[in-house]
Predict the structure.
Amino acid sequence: MKWESMSDFFAMGGYGLYVWGSYLVAMLCIIGEIVLIRIRKRTLYKHLGLRRKSILRGEK
Amino acid sequence: MKPRHKKITVIALSVSALAIAVVLVLNAFQSNLVFFFSPSQVAAKEAPIGKNFRIGGLVEEGSLRREGDGTTMKFAITDTAEVIRVVYTGILPDLFKEGKGVVAQGKIADDGIFYADEVLAKHDENYMPPEAASALEQAAKAQKTSLTQ
Amino acid sequence: MTINWFKYASPASFYFLAGRMIPYFSIAAIIFLIVGLYIAFFSAPTDFQQGEAYRIIFVHVPAAWMSMFLYLVMAFWAGIGLAFTTRLSSMVASAIAPTGAMFAFLALWTGAWWGKPMWGTWWVWDARLTSELILFFLYIGFMSLQAAIDDPRRADKAGAVIALVGVVNVPIIYFSVQWWNTLHQGASVSLVQSPKMATAMLSGMLIMALAAWMYSIVTILIRTRLIILERERHTAWVSELKEGVLE
């Protein structure tokens, strides 16, 4: 293992703020996009008056 | 306001906001197409003397001196053809090193010295572990000594 | 066996095809992400000049590549939609924009957080950074223009014009570091020369790029399906779908 300890891992050689600042925002962006898609889907389904979500998957 | 008019207002506002943003950015783009001048260009008087501009090149090996106050630095920027001496007070980026890339912003004074108010490090596109880097350095040194012999 | 590819050019067929493909691409995205992150943080070595700060590359470069590539794909489909008035292609173009904008934003954000510790600044107006910012604005412009126009057919046309005009920006981003003096360094990986990265680092970056590809395909397919339903809600096949006849 290249990291001596957990704190060593989080410190990122002194650049922890920048490395984790980048990855955290990347994660938030991805989660945010997925949440937005979910909201759009739910609103649309409600608007279309769909009873069962599985119907829309189009699976046989 | 009718919904139709409201819609048109919203479209007009957002389009003009976007247009302003694009104009500002394109303006910045044009004035920074020459992001920095090389020491040779400065020597050839191509850089805007008397105005703020940026010089880019390598920090000359062995040129870095720290003044008594500890925050004022003197060094030279070179493109291996010409050398410009630089004075800078402030914090240097972590990657600032002799022999490495640098971009300094400031003005050239009458004494020919470049007084910088911002110094940025410009690194190259090579990524490798330290062992590989030192092996490459050793190889380069060995080649140099064999050439001079 | 012959496959009738044109069958899938109709929104209805594409709707079902996309629905069947989404789970596979989702699984691939998760696998690539896990492997990529493992390499990024545990198997890739420390960099000789940038220390651990270079690990931002594993999200920065895939995001930047994706933002440029998705723009080209978006403009392509928007252009096809404009030229041949094919409904589905315009819908795909609209579905791509938010994901592309997200990746352009990420490229800018992670770039700032990488630039601060390494270069000594969050932002400079050099050609590379500025042209990537313009790319982000183009995505935003495309989306807000489409959102502002009620009639989908007219929205498609207006969006296609922005998308096609903006294509010129993509090669500017890519070649900016060669054409002009920039603070941003040149490309570490390109098609014409051997990569300037150690293998472990390079493999991590490429696998993260694959994860970004798979993720983009998933979000674009889901969004295309939603747009198809939105726009085709008055057609017979959606009614049948709602009644469960197609089940």
Observations:
- The longest strand of chain B covers residues 114-122.
- The mean pLDDT of chain B is 84.
